[in-house]
């Protein structure tokens, strides 16, 4: 018999309340369980002490017997200091645009950067050219005075 430490949903419609239970993996989510070891109330503020309560000693016992926690319960147990932090696997890339769309986005980004650099160069160039333009005018006025 493989054991799971998982959550069983309770509460009213749109008002969830979860029991953290040890159950045979073949049993339904809200069905028969062996022991209730805690609860999770997502309707309470995240910093409230009454959001998650777990009997740590019983959780350690069931883990030593071979029970496997669900990903969410594993996270709760890690926060309680019973288990190591769960490994977060790399997400699929289905949410990202396809190759051609990514290429178009890259081209747009490069064009935007080029435009910014050109604008920056234009803003700096007149400041440098202004003294250069004044110098020939001074030379011309000096030439007139010398003649």
Layout of helices and strands:
Elements: E1 3-12, E2 15-24, E3 35-40, E4 52-54, H1 56-65, E5 68-69, H2 71-80, H3 99-146
Parallel strand pairs: 1-5
Antiparallel strand pairs: 1-2, 2-3, 3-4
Polypeptide structure, described:
With about 150 residues, this protein is an alpha+beta fold. It has two domains: about 5-80, 2-Layer Sandwich (S16 Ribosomal Protein, Chain: A); about 95-135. Helices cover about 45% and strands about 20% of the residues. The chain has three helices and five strands. Strands 4-3-2-1-5 form a five-stranded mixed sheet. β1 and β2 (about 15-25) form a beta hairpin. It is elongated and about 80 Å long. The model has no long low-confidence stretch (mean pLDDT about 85).
Helicity, as a percent range: 40-55%
CATH H level, superfamily name of the largest domain: Ribosomal protein S16
Number of strands: 5
Radius of gyration: 34 Å
Distance between the termini: 112 Å
How is the biggest beta sheet arranged?
A: 5 strands, mixed
Record keyword descriptors for this entry.
single chain, alpha+beta, S16 Ribosomal Protein, Chain: A, 2 domains, 5-stranded mixed β-sheet, 3 helices, 21% strand
């Amino acid at each position: 018999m493989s054991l799971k430490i998982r959550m069983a949903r309770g509460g009213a419609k749109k008002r969830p309340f979860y029991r953290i239970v040890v159950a045979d993996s073949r049993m339904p989510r809200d069905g028969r369980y062996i022991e209730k070891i805690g609860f999770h109330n997502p309707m309470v503020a995240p910093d409230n002490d009454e959001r998650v309560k777990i009997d740590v000693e019983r959780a350690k016992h069931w883990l030593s017997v071979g029970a496997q926690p669900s990903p969410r319960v594993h996270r709760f147990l890690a926060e309680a200091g019973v288990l190591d932090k769960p490994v977060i696997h790399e997400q699929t890339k289905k949410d990202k645009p396809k190759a051609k769309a990514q290429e178009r986005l890259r081209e747009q980004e490069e064009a935007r950067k080029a435009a910014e650099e050109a604008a920056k160069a234009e803003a700096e160039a007149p400041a440098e050219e202004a003294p250069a333009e004044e110098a020939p005018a001074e030379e011309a006025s000096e030439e007139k005075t010398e003649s």
